[in-house]
Amino acid sequence: MTATSTPTRPLPPAATARRLTGLKPTGHLQLGNLLGAIRPLVADQYRTPTIGFLADLHALTVTHDPARVRELTLEQATMLLAAGIDPDRSMLYVQSQVPEHAELHYLLECATGYGEAHRMIQFKEKSATQRQVRLSLLTYPVLMAADILLHDAQEVPVGEDQGQHLELARTVAARFNARYGETFTIPRAVLPRVAHRIMDLADPAAKMGKSNAAGAGTIFLLDPPEIVRRKVLRAVTDSGSTVAYEPDTRPGVANLLEILAACVGGSPTELAAGFSSYGQLKNAAAEAVTALLRPIQLRYAGLARDPGYVRRVLADGAERARESGAQTVHRTKRALGLLV
Ligand code: AMP
Known about the structure:
51% of the residues lie in helices and 8% in strands. By secondary structure, the chain is mainly alpha-helical. The strands form three sheets. A three-stranded parallel beta sheet has the order 1-2-3. Strands 4-5 form a two-stranded parallel sheet.
């Protein structure tokens, strides 16, 4: 589909969709999102039905600015299209435009223990830094389980940080099936070969994230090449001088090697052998990341000039997602003993 045309619908029925990932509009998308979730999603869209969605309901679990969430939702949708989501092949939509997410969320809460939600590491970490913790922060992994189970997704490309939440989705689905009869497909995480946990360039002990303070160690997908280069060249390494892939003892260098391997192929260990200094490695990594981002940024610039097109894609995606989700919700209600 070209920008400006109306979305066409040659897709297989939405109910057959199998690979799914969601992105939370809480910040500008960064390299970890691209390598950990977006690229694996896009890579297989011609092999398997694919769903991408903007998880705006999840953005409400912490203090938020309504205008910013709205803006970031459109920006991220545009970025997903720029990164290669083909709306003629895949379904792309905004979570809050598909009420079946919230409906299934409630039904799954009735199959989830308080202790299970309370044990989630992300809840512990995020709630520890806030004075007023929203109840939705506690129940967010159950909404995530609903997101995944709604479309019978079998494969969920996610970064390593989402492993525990995905495990909860599997546990709840299996328990539900055992208690109320076969209702849900049990999903599995799909981790990229390398780069399933890209670290912050300024602090290799922390995960690269959209909301990291100041963003000095985060490569945003819309960063101009000179900024990418500066961030990579300033990446924190260690006092060593030879280049080797040793994630436990030299996490900064290992991170650069993983980023490079994700961009150009090969394994971090093999690539390490080709460099005799950290400077060489940093230059190669900066070059590889800017080459990876260049075509995406070009496409983004074109798409951003036509937000009406992006909105039409999202509206079409939401319509199809509702058709698919309604079937799952109906099945779930019937299994639970609700009159449907
Ligand atoms: P979020 O930024 O929380 O909306 O995450 C969206 C997706 O990107 C999830 O699948 C995350 O696991 C993935 N992701 C986020 N940050 C990273 C990272 N630093 N490395 C690898 N994957 C990541």
